[in-house]
Each structure stands twice: as C-alpha cells, then as structure tokens.
Amino acid sequence: MSDRMMPEPILKMEDVSMRYGDGPEILSNINLALPRGSFHFLTGKSGAGKTTLLSMMYLAQKPTSGRVSIFGSNVNFTNRSSLAMSRRRIGVVFQDFRLLDHVSAFDNVALPLRVCGMNEKEIGIRVNELLKWVEIKRSTSSLTSTLSGGEKQRVAIARAVINRPDFLLADEPTGNVDSDIATKLMKLFVELNKLGTTVVIATHNENLIREFHYPQIHLHNHGVAIIPAGRIEDVAGI
C-alpha cells in the first residue's frame, strides 16, 4: 500500500520537544506515529518523560517545539472549542485517579455519559455492568472518598473506558491492584482495543509486557524508540 493510501495515524508527533520553563528538555525531537487501532506499552525509567508524553497525547499540554496532530488536526493551531471536542474522544486513567471524592463511584463513572446526553436508564445499565466487571463489590452509591486505593483505581479505569473512547491513555493503571485484577483489567483494555480503540499504557510491570504481546514506545535519553513485542531484554531496568 502506498503512503498516499495509508490511513491517517490517530496521533502523530514531528520533531517534538518539551521543557518546563527554563529547565532542561524532558523530551527532544520526538517523532512518533500511532496507527489507528494499535496497542502500545509506554516504558522508560522513572523521570524519562512518560507522564509528559502522555500529557501531550491527551492535549493537556502543547509542545515547546514541533508539531502534534491528533485525529488529523494540528494541535498547535486548534482552537479551544475544537480541543474540547477532541478530548471527549480520549479516555485517560491518571496515576492519581482524579476522581470526584464527594460523589459516588456510580456517579464518577456515569459522568462522561451524562456529558454526552445519554438517558439515565441506559447509563444505569452500562455503569453497573462495568463496575461489576472491575469488581467494585461494595455499594456503588458509596462515596468515592471511602474506597480503597485499589477500588479507586478500578473506578478511574471504568470512567475512562465507559464511553468507548477512540483513544485510551493510562498511566500505571495496574499499580494499585494485585496480579489477578491487573490481568483482568488488561483484558478489558484488550477487548476495547479489539473494538477499535487505540491504546497506550504506561507501565513498569514487566510481567504484563511478557503476558500481553504488544510493542513498546520506549523513552531513553530524551528520545523514543519502538521496541517490538516480546523483546523485554531491551528495556532492562525500566
């Protein structure tokens, strides 16, 4: 297939660099294209810039230099309204959860569907089904502030995937759960990917990388390399 016939990648970064204020560059001259429907792990040592790269992917930050395009639009020249519409197509699992503690687990997960205007009956079916899948066993009307760290992690994941986003980004989504739950959550991401969602998961968990054979976006020395699935030895010390 010629380049002209290749579908537009869901995300493209061209010569992207990022620094905070007058500090050193966190990322330098990043060139990256993610095909629609792909699944990648994001790896690298602590401080390599994984969270910074994710923040540009979910449109929280613009690069210091270079070009970022998502869904075919150049982020650098996209207005605020269009950015907001693009963000609705992105699901994000933050490392610090970012849940609304003063409302219930149910209402946290229902929020993206209510923003989209879905009727409450359908919301109830979808939310309860997903909370059951991620094994929230206590009452879903419990305030989020009363949940354990692992339960909050699972509610955050449910909220990110409830509206079946086009692009899913997750920062250490299995960091607060045991290995059995981690595997189950990964299978949820895999099923979402099979439905067409492009997935990027930042992780230090080598067991997940071994079990689920997907390529890695590996950050090293401010740059990026794509490592084929299964080559764990290339990321020793992540």
Task: Jot down its keywords.
single chain; 238 residues; alpha/beta; 4-stranded antiparallel β-sheet; disordered C terminus
Give an account of the 3D structure:
- The chain is globular.
- The longest helix has 16 residues.
- Helix content is 32%, strand content 24%.
- The strands form 2 sheets. A 6-stranded mixed β-sheet has the order 6-7-8-3-9-10, sandwiched between helices. It has a 4-stranded antiparallel β-sheet with strand order 2-1-4-5, with helices on one face.
- Helix 3 packs parallel to helix 5.
- The C terminus is likely disordered.
- It has a domain of 65 residues.
- The protein is built from 7 helices and 10 strands.
What is the first-to-last residue Cα distance?
Answer: 36 Å
Residue stretches low in confidence (pLDDT < 50, at least 5 long) are: 234-238
Strand content: 15-25%
- The number of helical elements comes to 7
Order of strands across the main sheet: 6-7-8-3-9-10
Mean pLDDT over the residues: 90
Order of helices and strands: EEEHEEHEHHHEHEHEE
State the secondary-structure class: alpha/beta
Gyration radius, rounded: 18 Å
Helical proportion? Answer: 25-40%
**Largest beta sheet, briefly?**
6 strands, mixed
The gross shape turns out to be globular
What is the count of β-strands? Answer: 10
